[in-house]
Specification:
Elements: H1 3-14, E1 18-24, E2 30-35, E3 54-59, E4 63-68, H2 78-83, E5 90-91, E6 98-101, H3 105-115, E7 116-118, H4 124-128, E8 132-138, E9 141-147, E10 149-154, E11 157-159, H5 164-180, H6 192-196
Antiparallel strand pairs: 1-2, 1-5, 2-3, 3-10, 4-7, 4-9, 6-8, 8-9, 10-11
């Protein structure tokens, strides 16, 4: 799995994105969902903005830890509330997301052993059979996942990782057009990710 594509994915999700939902199934799969990404995907409804929601699905010997760096705002049951849509999506901490395949074990282990709130922190030996690893923060809380396999999932089904660079490039082209016509009679539908990704004046 191309590490440059994984890093590009993280940047495009974490820059202004939101941790919006998660699920754990009875068959051992774990899925995390992110909204407000800088990845272009078709609109969910005709005339709407591009769908900025993407998910990662982890399968095979999944190990999951919820993390907390400090106790300030988040309730103790924040993860349950997020899953039940009782908590608003959480703004991801920029540059905090690490998605690796057969690498990143030292940083992963340091985070889970230092900040694990729930779940059994894996050992270095555990990670040998779980090459797919995700670590991210959303303010004071975070998630760490390790498994044998991971997949990129959209509303239209599983996506090939090789499509990520094109999704990013197309989003930025869309973003340029969004701001070009933003205050005209040709303005595009309101888009969260575009609105918070403000152009820098020359």
């Amino acid at each position: 799995m191309n590490p440059e594509i994984l890093e590009l994915f993280c940047q495009s999700v974490c820059d202004v994105g939101l941790f919006s939902w998660w699920s754990a199934s009875d068959d051992g799969k774990f899925q995390v969902e992110f909204a407000g990404t800088q990845l272009w995907m078709p609109p969910l409804a005709e005339g709407g903005p591009p769908c900025g929601t993407i998910a990662l699905r982890f399968e095979g010997q999944v190990m999951t830890c919820l993390l907390r760096r400090e106790q300030k705002v988040m309730p103790a049951d924040w993860a349950d509330q997020l899953q039940n849509d009782s908590l608003r999506p959480l703004r991801l901490t920029p540059q905090s997301m690490k998605l690796c395949y057969e690498s990143g074990s030292a940083e992963f282990l340091e985070a889970v052993h230092g900040y694990a709130e729930s779940g059994l922190p894996p050992s270095a030996e555990d990670l040998l059979s779980r090459p797919a690893r995700l670590l991210f923060w959303a303010g004071e809380v975070g998630v760490a996942v390790a498994s044998r396999r991971m997949a990129l999932v959209s509303h239209h089904g599983d996506r090939d990782w090789q499509l990520v660079p094109g999704m990013v490039s197309r989003w930025w082209s869309y973003w340029e057009e969004y701001w070009k016509v933003r205050e005209t009679d040709k303005a595009l539908p309101w888009d969260y990710a575009c609105e918070v990704t403000v152009p820098v004046e020359d």
